[in-house]
Amino acid sequence: MIRILFLCTGNSCRSQMAEGWLKHLRPDDFEVYSAGIEAHGLNPYAVQVMAEASIDISQQLSQTVDQLPERQFEYVITVCDHANEVCPVFPAKTKFIHHSFEDPPKLAANASNEEEALSCYRKVCEDIKQFVQEIDSALI
């Protein structure tokens, strides 16, 4: 099984969604983790939009790289620019891929109501789903 880590700044939205999608779509092909440079806690809107797609991420942990049970990954995929810029050191054999997604909380910052905010999360969730569906072409 190929071991993949999705890494972002706070491990609250984008990396959590990516972990959920890959576990859902390819459970037999990948061992999937997510982490952040920091741990900001699981974002409830991220949980909600994933639940709308019938994927439960509510039990996933918001954690830092240092809290991971394992540091040996074939791939580390950074899903935001900040994580890409300050990515921790991993063993030399680890391959790095950067694919930045918009930050849902920033997109939703000026939303006038909850539904408008959720639509921002849904957009990013769909973008991440599309990336994960085509992950084989991203792996180098």
UniProtKB/TrEMBL annotation:
GO biological process: response to arsenic-containing substance
Occurrences of domain Phosphotyrosine protein phosphatase I (ranges): 2-137
Highest rank taxon of the organism: Bacteria
Keyword entries, A-Z: Arsenical resistance
Coiled coil: none
InterPro entries linked to this entry: Ptyr_pPase, Ptyr_pPase_sf
Protein's name in the database: Arsenate reductase ArsC
Lineage of origin: Bacteria, Pseudomonadati, Pseudomonadota, Gammaproteobacteria, Oceanospirillales
